[in-house]
């Protein structure tokens, strides 16, 4: 099993993540979170909400920020007036180019299907190019490893190689092959029996269309929101009129978003239903560049603070050619997933694009009025926006991948999820060493006292080593064992998950000891 298969299998086996409606064969791009998964994802969202919104101190200047600022929250409806999506550009432009394979009926995002010719390298180092047939493989152009290309075309490439004895084959990217009719006719798609089965790329709108009310005509069409951000923009005036906020300030929102992705893949990484954690941060136009820098760094650091390994986490500034026409800057927080380096979160300087669009479309003046600005000319202005937009499902998957490890304890292999205590689904497990001599009663008493404060778990079944192993797999930071000494001396052992070290703690001190690690 490769690393990703092991994680998917652990998620299924231990109740983190299941395919949606599995008993009916599932639904591509939809996932359900089981008893452990729901706790993990909730903890991630809670950490985001606490750190970004609820516990944000608006009287102090955070590290790296130009000045103090306010943060408030919002929970807007999932269904909105369809004009929102016209103003935002989603009706006209929220599409991916896709190609269909007429033979296999597979559908691909054109930018995620790479096309290669082959180069044969002789022992004398001379190159011979073969491009009568071009080979298509899932992945971004130039990024696929030869193994990924060769997999669906292994037999064909092997037989070509036989006709060129002693020569090693390697792929060379052919940019633009899907867009060029003549080249496309030579492309062999994955699983197809002959070249030329792919259609030309076509724009495919990613929004899920639905109808509101009983009439299914054009007047009742709306969309399941493809992002939470627009709910924030259309409430900008409501919030500034009611919440006594002053620019600069941010509005945070967590909620579901839906995209009819052409090719859902990599477990929950690209789903059709997912959750976003988004901030729209409103500032004066002249200060936008500074705030953009601040949010890039702050959001990158947030993952590190929650224990993500720095070696796996990257902050990538977009090239200017990658930017949307209205954007003044964009950076991605990327994670080294087992399937490759991919986006976890995007931080964009969106200028005043969204507020301007909504002002024009709705006819409402969405400028901010700063009554404390001494310069009268500068009192009314359209703020610029910095948008850190993160995925809760992608975050959960990244933390699962980062935490997954295998080691050996006492000569026995174990799987352990080294999750940060804030994220761990279960904070501590309480065990009686044996099911007699009053130990279960004492353990239950401890369990009940701790359960009032944290999500703790009681287990008296199986040998103690097995109980430890089960909690290691669930990512539980502490296991508390009641033994003979608990009854005579009033102390328990507390075993720490990662080091497996055990300390003896008095029962009376247990809650404050755990509190140091677990927080409130
Ligand atoms: P991608 O390029 O991967 O399609 P994007 O750039 O379109 O992503 P944004 O529109 O910037 O993504 O969305 C912000 C965040 O929402 C992403 O960083 C990601 O965490 C999350 N997200 C977007 N699409 C999906 C999806 N299909 N499944 C899960 N999470 C998603």
Q: How many H/I helices?
A: 15
- Proportion in β-strands: 25-35%
Query: Which secondary-structure class do the elements indicate?
Result: alpha+beta
Radius of gyration: 27 Å
What is the makeup of the main sheet?
7 strands, mixed
The separation of the N and C termini measures 39 Å
Please state the average pLDDT score: 94
Q: How many extended strands?
A: 27
- How are the strands of the largest sheet arranged? 3-13-14-20-17-16-15
Q: Which distinct ligands sit in these coordinates?
A: adenosine-5'-triphosphate
Tell me, briefly, the overall form.
globular
Protein described:
By secondary structure, the protein is an alpha+beta fold. Helices cover 29% and strands 30% of the residues. The chain contains 15 helices and 27 strands. Strands 3-13-14-20-17-16-15 form a seven-stranded mixed sheet. The chain has a five-stranded mixed sheet with strand order 24-23-25-26-27, with helices on both faces. A hairpin with a 6-residue loop joins strand 4 (95-100) and strand 5 (107-109). It is globular, with a radius of gyration of 27 Å. The mean pLDDT is 94. Bound molecules: adenosine-5'-triphosphate (ATP). Adenosine-5'-triphosphate is lined by residues 227, 259, 261, 270-271, 274, 276, 343-346, 389-391, 393-394.
